[in-house]
Amino acid sequence: MSETNELPERESMEFDVVIVGGGPAGLSAAIRLKQINPELSVVVLEKGGEVGAHILSGAVVDPIGVDKLLPGWREEEGHPFKTPVTADHFLVLGHSGSIRLPNFGMPPLMNNHGNFIVSLGNVCRWLATKAEELGVEIYPGFAGSEVLYDDSGSVIGVATGDMGIEKDGSHGPAYTRGMALLGKYVLIAEGARGSLAKQLIHTFKLDEGKEPAKYGIGLKELWQVDPSKHKLGLVQHTFGWPLDMKTGGGSFLYHLEDNTVAVGFVMHLNYKNPYLSPFEEFQRFKTHPSIRGTFEGGKRLSYGARAITEGGWQSVPKLSFPGGALIGCSAGFVNVPRIKGSHNAMLSGMLAAEHVAEAIAAGRANDELIAYENAWRSSEIGKDLKRVRNVKPMWSKLGTVGGVLLGGIDMWLNTIFGGWSPFGTWKHGKTDAASLEPASKHSPIAYPKPDGVLTFDRLSSVFLSNTNHEENEPVHLIVKDPALQKTSEHDVYAGPSTRYCPAGVYEWVEEGSGPKFVINAQNCVHCKTCDIKDPNQNINWVPPQGGEGPVYTSM
After folding, report:
1. Among 222, 233, 308, 437, fewest CB within 10 Å belongs to which?
2. What is the pLDDT of residue 471?
């Protein structure tokens, strides 16, 4: 990689395998590589200030992945899987009431018994200690900001971002050139809508012939509740109110140890109405008569938000490229109806690691791991995703009532017939950005003001996420065409960025010369929703300097 005359030469380090992302997929890949061959040199880059700092998930974990990676973990002390699921409830919410669906009518794959309610951030911290015990090097606080190629176009590594750049782009007194980490293979495990994964998918046309990537936004709070309201091990999911029957989404309440309850709201990002606010819908959801009682007398401890991959079987891009592969949510392995992806993330990390180790043992380097691409659909991952492939497109095309009903029938048929259904495989159609309609087709929504007890505003919520970015650094949310943001995002769509962002990053401020687009980048919780939902794909999320962003604890 040639350097410009203005910049000093990058220092470099060489490894057998470079992994970008310290989530379940990246750490599982690292552990599996060292299990196969302890002599392999493996490094994990993690953009958070510590492993787990940027991890946010529900989370109810299917232990199939950890069972395969670390057999015998159940006999160990100190593991994070403390709360087995004891009860499984599914509710349909109306405006003022609810109906519980009978468990016997649910497809068997929706059963959560045998699963664990966890903090996925704590799971990753635990996996990191396992990886380091095996000799994996983990570098927290360093994001992969650039893909490095050789002259033939194969990926040979990644570079971390330069540090000490001032807001105007100049080099400050603490300026340091990023480091080049070179490897025989590079595994990309950045999570949903990763910045490097997005580049690689475009460069190598990995999404050619696939359905568009689809996403949801997941918002989560952690509460300490009155012990009398706590039901250890209870898993509760809902759909319906406050969303209308044409807008996809739902909620979860998970009762963990220490009288804590994780409450979350997932909204599919293919919604049409630009006046919708996922954050406000989440706050409104908590006021439902069947929900609010859990939180009376309780205290909110944490808040966060993150995009979720929802395209599934049809949307998974080609996973291999010259020099590396996509794993975990960078590939899009979430099972949407189960609201679970960490088990498939771990399995994909292990599967990729096995093919990488085999290639290195054969003396190969920087070529394409086509055997990994060819293996995943017949693996546990493929079987898991194929059975639920129609749930999301059916919901999107038929609405909540028809889509959930037909999706349930389809899951039953796929379960009975081993992945076959008379409905075939439905397509998703539009991207989430293209699904947004002009404001002229919709009416503004008057959301209730927060009471500061059960419902809250965005800024007080962001405060609980422990989010921090240096004021004097370049904005990491890049608007490609400022004029287009005014003529389209503002004038045609009524500024949906002010509503879809769950952290109050974007504002349209009226000035004498007209509306001005203001970006409060210091509030960004790295959810990536703007990168997905902007109707013109005019906002590009890139990693900020250092280990900045949220610092989630027990999320």
Report:
1. 437
2. 86
Report the CATH number that the domain containing residue 494 is assigned in CATH.
3.30.70.20
The verdict on whether omega for the bond into residue 305 sits within 30 degrees of 0, i.e. cis, is no
Residue 493's closest CA among 164, 244, 225, 273? 273
Backbone φ and ψ of 8, nearest 5°: -70, 160
Give, in order, the Cα–Cα distances in Å from 114 to each of 66, 71, 78, 109, 258: 13, 16, 19, 12, 20
- Give the per-residue pLDDT at 7: 78
Residues 93-132 have pLDDT tens digits of 999 999 999 999 899 999 999 999 999 999 999 999 999 9
End-to-end CA distance of the chain: 39
Within a domain: 419: no
Give the C-alpha separation, 340 to 308, whole Å: 10
Beta bridge partners of 101: 90
Which has the closest alpha carbon to 550: 329, 266, 222?
A: 222
Query: Phi and psi for 495 in degrees, rounded to 5?
Result: 65, 55
The answer for residues whose C-beta is within 8 angstroms of residue 17's C-beta and 6 or more apart is 29, 30, 33, 40, 41, 42, 43, 183, 184, 185, 186, 187, 356, 360
- Residue 43 region by backbone torsions, left for phi larger than 0, else alpha for psi between -120 and 50, else beta: beta
Say how many CA atoms lie within 13 Å of 374 toward its Cβ: 5
Strand, coil or helix: 293: helix
Please count the structural domains in the chain: 2
3-state secondary structure 403-461: HHHHHHHHHHHHHHCCCCCCCCCCCCCCCCCCCCCCHHHCCCCCCCCCCCCCCCCHHHH
Give the per-residue pLDDT at 5: 46
Is the Cβ–Cβ distance between 371 and 355 less than 8 Å? yes
Of 433, 298, 319, nearest in space to 385 by CA: 319
Instruction: Give residue 345's domain range.
Output: 12-69+122-210+317-386
Answer yes or no: do 45 and 136 share one domain.
yes
Of the candidates 12, 65, 66, 49, which has an alpha carbon nearest to the alpha carbon of residue 138?
Answer: 49
- Can you list the residues of the chain whose pLDDT is less than 70? 1-5
pLDDT value at residue 459: 96
Examine the fold and report which residue of 330, 352, 386 is the final residue of a domain before the chain moves on.
386
Token pair, residue 100, equals 């519980």
Q: What is the CATH number of the domain that holds 48?
A: 3.50.50.60
Q: Which amino acid is at 235?
A: V
> What is d(CA 377, CA 463) in angstroms, rounded to the nearest whole number?
42
* Predicted structure pTM score: 0.95
198/332 same-domain check: yes
